[in-house]
Amino acid sequence: MGSAINTVDSPSSSSVSGILLAREMADQERNFRSQYYDKVGFRSVEEKRSIENLLKEQPMKHEKLAQFCIRFGLPAMYRLYVWKILLGILPANQTCQDFVWFHRQEQVRELERATILLCPDSIDGSQEYKVLIMKLVEEGKLPLRKKNLTSELSNQHFMAIVRTVSSLVTSEADLFWISTRFFCHVFNVLGSFSQFPEYTMQCLMKEDKSQKLYQHLCHHQVVSALPLHVWFHQCFASVLPEASVERIWDRVIGGSSHILVFVAVAIFLVLRRPLLAMQSSQDIVNYLKEIPEDCGDRIVNEALNLFQEYGLTWPMKEDSPVTCTGDSGRSSAKALTESGRHSRHSSGASCREKAKGDSGQVTIVVGGPLPLSVARRSPSTAGKGS
């Protein structure tokens, strides 16, 4: 009788193999489904589950959310919420988010009242001008003479960001806090933007196989006339459609500002044909100042492909080096840190290209510029995650 009980309780080898086979088939079906969704353009099916799992953690992990933003971008329904967490508008602990947000809204209402008292002309001004005054009041930097406020370059960049954010949000509190915190986030990495135009042309030279477009732009001296610095400082606000820009901002908020270089390169590649047809620098500059709206998604998709192809940066501590290869990156990051100490007194370059044989590894400083020699990841390492 005991043997009979043992027979019932202990699964036979055939039943175990059947269970394992069923699990393997389920995994294959799930992988096939994921690949099918990816192929037809519905990658968000699996990504939505992943971000929901991250948001269930208490408290939520900033590093994990930032990594998700860099790798996949955010689903539309969670975008503003995750932005507010990563920008420090809301705390990572859900239990006190309502309390914090209530006081954030109260602060915005107080700033609106103060703005009306200190700057009555803001009532009839544009929405972005009003938010600018509120920002200056909150920072204690509102000047007595306000005539030249909108002519200052940094204020123009901020107002462009406000215009883009206003199309993404529905409340005054969201508009103020996301605009101001995102502008501060961009301001913290302004030092790396000075070399972005140079890296843009270097990357374009590598992508333009025939060198036709690259030589055409150099021949007409377009680079010096283009508003590349404006593009980078505004993170392409008022340059690309809002629905396209938000996918770029996911990566910027996640900590990879060098995505902006690939967006600039993608603009040239997508608009290659009309640019080659123009025979004056002024015509090219005027055309690029008003990029067709129907090209927005194509440009962003091309930029994200370049971003994936050249490697991702992972959000770590500020100015910390990260290796964009298939391994964990710890040894390379440590080696780069040691080399960075010596390089400060030599060339001063914050990014170095590091090659092992033909692997084509690229090392990039988070929040900093791209390496002077932008190298593609080889097929042997391109498919590996970090």
UniProtKB/TrEMBL annotation:
Keyword terms, alphabetized: Cytoplasm, Cytoplasmic vesicle, GTPase activation, Lysosome, Membrane
Example GO biological process: negative regulation of TOR signaling
Subcellular location: Cytoplasm, Cytosol; Cytoplasmic vesicle; Lysosome membrane
An annotated Gene Ontology molecular function: GTPase activator activity
A GO cellular component entry from the record: cytosol
Matching PROSITE patterns: TBC_RABGAP
Region of interest called Disordered, as start-end residue ranges on this chain: 321-386
Primary location class: cytoplasm
Compositional bias of kind Polar residues: 322-331
The keyword Transport is annotated on this UniProt entry: no
Presence of the UniProt keyword S-adenosyl-L-methionine in the record: no
Pfam family for this entry, one: RabGap-TBC_2
PANTHER family: TBC1 DOMAIN FAMILY MEMBER 7
Role noted for this protein: Non-catalytic component of the TSC-TBC complex, a multiprotein complex that acts as a negative regulator of the canonical mTORC1 complex, an evolutionarily conserved central nutrient sensor that stimulates anabolic reactions and macromolecule biosynthesis to promote cellular biomass generation and growth. The TSC-TBC complex acts as a GTPase-activating protein (GAP) for the small GTPase RHEB, a direct activator of the protein kinase activity of mTORC1.
Protein name (database record): TBC1 domain family member 7
Organism (species): Plakobranchus ocellatus
